[in-house]
Amino acid sequence: MVSIKDIARIADVSVSTVSRIINNKKGVNLEKQARVLQAIKSTGYVPNKAARDMVMKRTFTVALIIPDTFNIFQRQLFSNIEHHLQKFGYRTVFYFVAMGPDGEDDCFQRVKSERTDGIIMLQEIQLHAFYEYLESNKIPCVITTFEKDEWTSTSIHVSEEEAAHAAVNHLIQLGHRRISLICGKRYSFSLERKRGYRNALEYAGLKYDENLVVYVDSYSVLSGGEGMRELMKRNTPFTAVFAVTDELAIGAMRELKDHGISVPQDVSIVGFDDIEISSFTIPRLTTIRQPLGEMAQTSVAMIHSLITSENHLNVNIAMPSQLIIRESTSTLNGNAQDGT
Amino acid sequence: MVSIKDIARIADVSVSTVSRIINNKKGVNLEKQARVLQAIKSTGYVPNKAARDMVMKRTFTVALIIPDTFNIFQRQLFSNIEHHLQKFGYRTVFYFVAMGPDGEDDCFQRVKSERTDGIIMLQEIQLHAFYEYLESNKIPCVITTFEKDEWTSTSIHVSEEEAAHAAVNHLIQLGHRRISLICGKRYSFSLERKRGYRNALEYAGLKYDENLVVYVDSYSVLSGGEGMRELMKRNTPFTAVFAVTDELAIGAMRELKDHGISVPQDVSIVGFDDIEISSFTIPRLTTIRQPLGEMAQTSVAMIHSLITSENHLNVNIAMPSQLIIRESTSTLNGNAQDGT
DNA sequence: CTGAAAGCGCTTACAG
DNA sequence: CTGAAAGCGCTTACAG
């Protein structure tokens, strides 16, 4: 494996000047520069990243922390972030963290051992020591898709509660009164979306009914089906449902279809996230669009600023979400069924 | 940032013995061991990966090369691979490569600079120098989801052509004679699936008709819709379609629906890959299942073996695929329309 | 069993 | 403008 010494030898200069040329420092003899460039070209030499990282105490990479069970929205988001990061010259390393203390600990070990320049978190981690570490070592960190109250950091997110409120209110405006909720207990986004659901109900003078809410284990299409099945078993009539993610909504629609219940004629349904596939389902899904591209772009702009600037001013950015009305919701009319 | 020297000082031993303890070498005084373990615990010390990588000339990570436009199947696959890699103690670093020479070159620079222990390729790269580099530096590499003829390496894949043949033959068995193809020109898998389509037709004594095949730019749901739109413009009647990926098929189904054409009553459709969502579409999609889990597992088993063993025996593994019949295909009956 | 020393491949003051 | 030297944080022979 060719090293900087080889280049120095071939070009008949010192390693210092090779290093200078590689790093575009000004003031090198043009003739020598030509010689080393030639040597680099002929050998295909590329500096060893590990060596450079060690001495510079910078890695030019940022870590992206995400749940190993990432859903489609998160996937679209991290693709986007990776792309922007690359434009800024950063590499991205993904830390997929498994549920529970062990997963978090693995992640923590990696941040300590790999020393990335910064961190973007798409998932909450509980481990207290983690935040202490970031703080005491002044490691730039931006949180995206949620906020963390106990920890001041810059975060980029949508007003989950408000957005969910808008989704449910859409259903209420259409005349629905018995609105089910499919949600989960993990991750703050679900809790907040549930709160938005509840608020919208109360705001409209509707009673919150535990029988109309079902909790599922994950936010996948499969869970959406399970949630709907559970709901239908309960014999509590409903004419609309708010699913806390699009995937859940898609699974729920599938299950309804299997029971001969039509969307939106019999039951209206609204999701959350506006993932790609949601404009292609049959029927197309009404949902809340998160400004994915903007969130990604802002996240990397912020992490870059945090990495390169002296004063770490933390900001909390709430981005606007938008209700996208498509085909899965309609007015409650006379022949709407009970969904049972 | 605490280093090995700090631990040595705190525990009052040499850095050598700290290193020995960290790396679980046998034969260290138990009392000293206790002291350094205590020091490590109290300081939260974790070895610097960059330093270790440099001196050991190993990184304990494998690179996963994938197209930056990865589709859902590829996403499921790389998630799976990452997971298995982790079980073997490897880290995964993703190289998303953009289409074209620049993208490939970036990727090549990264493999040269980051020196991963091995490489798993989910995407073909053309650059000749790349393979020369791998070869001359004896860098283990496994290719998954395709084969590369000019380059002997271990590869894991499905018999694309055969599988496509089976998909189209299913349509033929159902009585279809005018079968469209939605495919692309990029990536070998599409070419091979097209070949399977053609073979199946000829095998059944059916004529291959260019008017029935449409080429799309990507393998996304969006492109599926575009392909179908194009097909319908041509006024060439068809009663069935084979889409080279599930996403294409899903997009095509959506487009048909918009034109009031029912699947499978009017037109039958079969996809390829069996991505998760395909069991939840309306109607559920008939498709070819690739043994995703097995492919992932085998890929990492092979790369691990290549990394750890002396003799690099290359193997070419063809895994079985399976036709999954669901709701999007049915027999051609009297009232089937022409699809125009 | 254990420490001092050399070395991995770089970058960066420091002289000249 | 440029080279010799020190040093980054590790591991691994090599003595003892």
TrEMBL record, chains A, B:
Residues 2-56 form the HTH lacI-type domain. The keyword Acetylation does not apply. The keyword Lipid biosynthesis does not apply. Keywords: DNA-binding, Transcription, Transcription regulation. Residues 3-46 form the HTH cro/C1-type domain. Pfam families: LacI, Peripla_BP_3. CDD domains: HTH_LacI (cd01392), PBP1_LacI_sugar_binding-like (cd06267). GO terms for molecular function: DNA-binding transcription factor activity; transcription cis-regulatory region binding. InterPro entries: Cro/C1-type_HTH, HTH_LacI, LacI/GalR-like_sensor, Lambda_DNA-bd_dom_sf, Peripla_BP_I. PANTHER family: HTH-TYPE TRANSCRIPTIONAL REGULATOR GALS (PTHR30146:SF109), LACI-RELATED TRANSCRIPTIONAL REPRESSOR (PTHR30146). This is Transcriptional regulator, LacI family. It comes from Parasphaerochaeta coccoides (strain ATCC BAA-1237 / DSM 17374 / SPN1) (Sphaerochaeta coccoides).
